[in-house]
Amino acid sequence: MNLLEALESKARMLPEKYRDMSAEELEALIRDIKAKMGKKLFIPGHHYQKDEVIQFADATGDSLKLAQLSAENRDAEHIVFCGVHFMAETADILTGDNQKVYLPDMRAGCSMADMADIYQTERAWESLQLLFGDTILPLTYVNSTAAIKSFVGENGGATVTSSNAEKMVQWAFTQKERLLFLPDQHLGRNTTYNIGIGLDEMAVYNPIENNLEFEGPLEKVKVILWKGHCSVHENFTVENILNVRKTNTNMKIIVHPECKHEVVRLSDMAGSTNYIIDAIEASPTGSEWAIGTEMNLVNRLIAQHPDKHIVSLNPHMCPCLTMNRIDLQHLAWSLDSIMEGQECNIINVESGTSENAKLALDRMLHQS
Question: Do domains 113-230 and 233-312 have the same CATH topology?
Fold first, then answer.
């Protein structure tokens, strides 16, 4: 059973009451509860959330920023995280004992995080130790489960974000000769390439086949990339870029580093979600952009910047399906349950896992 299946098995079904309510009724209910709960309630909303949900967010941002803001908000006893499961886990790891973290829909997982479960990772680590000895430091993208963060923390490694990945990779190489980068091979490849590691020095670990994909002498391997990816960002292609270059020579292409290596190399700019947002905001009126990231955010940027011509790099792109599980109905249900004292969908990371995961997070924050 993978993580998404496990979450679905634990998820309570949305009561019919909320399915039958109109959008206006749901919005009124959410506003009323927010007003009544005041500072005791904090709703963080990830950039990729739907507009119908993001309108109620007390803060928007990427997953780590929102988890940190949740921890800093000591008045908030109830944190209703509008994002996906690993994000709510990170918030639970960083927040205090007096704070509870909720995920409005427990089925809101992440396909990338689901591509590296703890059993595969422990098996891989054992195999890689036999091949390379004690020469590897594990790093994990924050887009990973609490169990993977805990594994990395226990083995001396750290978490990374798309903003600080280069800095953290450079730190990793001061600790060990090699690194294992979990769970997104594309961010790992793009990051290590940017600091001068050759593609011929990167191996790929396949967790399904339990083998190392590499042609050449093993002593040449510096980076071991986990064979995982973001199902949204992997759908931006070289063909998408060539089409933009052909049809609009004035349009700049900006993509997220979770995109494939060849897509990033052909783009004009690449960076984190916040990097993309800042670049668009700083660009002059009349500028033209093709953006390679999640569609909810692209549509929001289009609406926020009518003075600029903005399109999705892939015109057929769909929003992140698991992110979109958080909707008005589930948000209203979550808040209503808290008000009635029948709290549901609480995220509670076991203490041992939390402790080691926090080690991985703290090592990253110490370097920042």
Answer: yes
CATH 3.40.50.11540 is right for the domain spanning 113-230 = no
**How much of the chain, in percent, has pLDDT values that exceed 90?**
91
Low-confidence ranges of the chain (pLDDT < 70): 1-11, 368
Describe the crossing of helices 146-154 and 85-94 by its angle, rounded to 10 degrees: 50
The whole-angstrom separation of Cα 306 and Cα 90 is 35
Residue bearing tokens 């409005």: 104
Fold assignment, 3-108+322-350: Rossmann fold (3.40.50)
What's the pTM? Answer: 0.92
101-154 pLDDT tens trace: 999 999 999 999 999 999 999 999 999 999 999 999 999 999 999 999 999 999
Domain ranges of the chain: 3-108+322-350, 113-230, 233-312
Angle at 66 between CA 61 and CA 67, to 5 degrees: 155
Q: Which CATH class is domain 233-312?
A: alpha beta
